[in-house]
Inverse folding.
């Protein structure tokens, strides 16, 4: 399906993304998802390559997930470079990008925080459904950031429902995250194969990370 002369489709709504994926599946194609928060590097692109080896169609998501951030953390200054990200994904062979503005319920007029930007709101119509993996999310990273894996599991659940992948590819640099997602998929009977890929490293051995920049 790859054609360098064609624009890479970028979908911003759940309905459009889901319709595109279902069209691929209706044609008998296997779909892989590579979830990212953008600001991509070669480690992310290695996940796209792995996805291409396991499926006919690869969707990459770019979404800085606000529920992974506490109110005092760096959501507002998190690095973003969507134009470069799309160009890199196209060159890597991805077939579509899911780049939603928000995956959470916005409540017009509810005041600051109503869009769930890393904080809770008491508005009765605000988003209130979250997914947790009770035991595995508590130690290690979960000890210092108790909100983090609840946000990860919730957004990955939403991405799975929207993109309906057969395969989802994650990096094992975030080892606990990979294990938590794998357990969630097992426990909730998602029909998704979760693949964890080895860490990609810089020349000096440091694990590739957007934080390195």
């Amino acid at each position: 399906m790859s054609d360098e002369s064609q624009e890479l489709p970028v979908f911003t709504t759940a309905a459009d993304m889901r319709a595109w994926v279902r069209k691929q599946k209706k044609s008998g194609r296997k779909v892989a998802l590579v979830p990212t928060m953008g600001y991509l590097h070669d480690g992310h692109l290695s996940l796209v390559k792995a996805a291409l080896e396991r499926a006919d169609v690869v969707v990459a998501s770019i979404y800085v997930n606000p529920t992974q951030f506490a109110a005092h953390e760096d959501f507002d200054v998190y690095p973003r470079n969507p134009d470069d990200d799309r160009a890199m994904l196209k060159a890597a062979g991805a077939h579509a990008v899911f780049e939603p503005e928000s995956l959470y319920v916005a409540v017009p007029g509810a005041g600051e925080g109503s869009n769930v930007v890393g904080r809770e709101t008491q508005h009765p119509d605000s988003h209130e459904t979250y997914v947790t993996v009770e035991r595995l999310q508590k130690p290690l990273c979960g000890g210092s950031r108790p909100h983090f894996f609840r946000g990860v599991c919730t957004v990955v659940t939403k991405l799975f429902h929207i993109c309906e992948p057969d395969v989802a590819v994650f990096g094992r640099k975030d080892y606990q995250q990979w294990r938590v997602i794998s357990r969630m998929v097992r426990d909730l009977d998602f029909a998704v194969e979760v693949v964890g890929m080895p860490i990609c490293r810089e020349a000096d051995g440091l694990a590739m990370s957007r934080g390195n920049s």
In short: Residues 60 and 183 are 22 Å apart (CA to CA). The radius of gyration is 17 Å. Residues 148-163 form the longest helix (16 residues). The beta strands are 10-11, 31-36, 57-62, 96-98, 167-171, 193-197.
